[in-house]
Amino acid sequence: MKPPQARRTRQSRETVLAWAFLAPSIAVFALFLAYPLGRTVYLSMHGNDIIGRPDRFVGFGHFAEMASPEFGEVLLTTLLFTLGTVVPGVLGALVIVLLLEGVIRGQRILRGAFALPFAFSVASASVIFVVFYSSGNSVLNGILYRVGLSQVPWLTSQEMALWSVCITTVWMNLGYGVLVLAAGIGSIPREVNEAARIDGATGVRLARDVTVPMLGPQLFFLIVISTINALQGFGQIHILTRGGPSGSTTTLVYSIFEHAFAYSTSDFGRASAQALVLLLVVLVCTAVQFGVIERKVHYA
Which of 144, 146, 184, 228 matches a 20 to 30 Å C-alpha distance to 199? Predict the structure, then answer.
């Protein structure tokens, strides 16, 4: 048995070694998470001069200003954009994957074709849809004209602009959902499906009672990730509508951009306060999803 002094020396060495291994991770955490978050809190409580430097303490003044109808409209737009992209995106990917399960030949090719939009960057996909949506001789309006329907102001109407951006976002993210759910179906044991078929479960019944419940972990993951991505969506809004018309597509992220960088405002205080609200919204949505949806997930 080693003497107490030797044990303490060994424990000290192990402690120093453990901190040495942890030091790089702690440094990265402090540099890219702790400091930016602390700086955001600091800026949210200060006003700015014309070039964006904090010059006065305002406390919770920026947060109090959010209790306005204008900011309420921003939150409502964010909610509609999130629902309009997450729900059809997840359901669309699920329907596609379930339909592809019934295809015997060319299944991998079809999966690759449906997953292809995931390979496009946000900028590339948005530019493509600018061509589809643009007024005048746009692709979609050309199709509507051919079938005898009136043209639609996809990006210039307050009623249509947000849903046009939602359609673009769903198309961009659909491939990722197909890949995730296809991998989930591939992980379902063959014996489970065979036993269900022996019991007479086929078609819709097999998908409802066996496949979809077994895809619970993948669906839960996809819902959480899609919600976070929707709350942080920016590129497609900036390229397609720039928050317009009349703010109808101004989500919380785009409002942060407008206050901080657009029109040379450099109002980093208000932008930082809204960024903290966005962080709170993401945390609350994630916590609710973990508290409500995860309870119904079956892990094999």
Answer: 184
Residue 7: its H or E element: helix 4-29
Q: Which secondary structure element, helix H or strand E, spans residue 48, and what is its range?
A: strand 46-48
Token readout for 126 is 């948005």
Burial of 76 (0-12, 13-18, 19+ CB in 10 A): exposed
Residue 1's pLDDT is 53
3-state secondary structure 123-148: HHHHHHHHHHHCCCCCHHHHHHHHCC
What is the Cα–Cα distance from 232 to 249, expressed in whole angstroms? Answer: 13
Q: What is the phi/psi pair of residue 199, to 5°?
A: -80, 0
pLDDT on residue 300: 63
Question: To which H or E segment does residue 162 belong?
Answer: helix 161-186
CB 178 within 8 A of CB 172: no
Q: How confident is the model at residue 222 (pLDDT cuts 50, 70, 90)?
A: very high
Element (H, E) at 253: helix 252-260
Exposed / middle / buried, residue 177 (Cβ in 10 Å: 0-12, 13-18, 19+)? buried
**Helix/strand/coil (H/E/C) assignment for every residue in 205-223:** HHHHHHHHHHCHHHHHHHH
Residue 189: asked if its preceding bond is cis (omega within 30°), the reply is no
Whole-angstrom distance, CA of residue 279 vs CA of residue 299: 29
| pLDDT value, residue 111 | 79
Q: What is the pTM assigned to this prediction?
A: 0.89
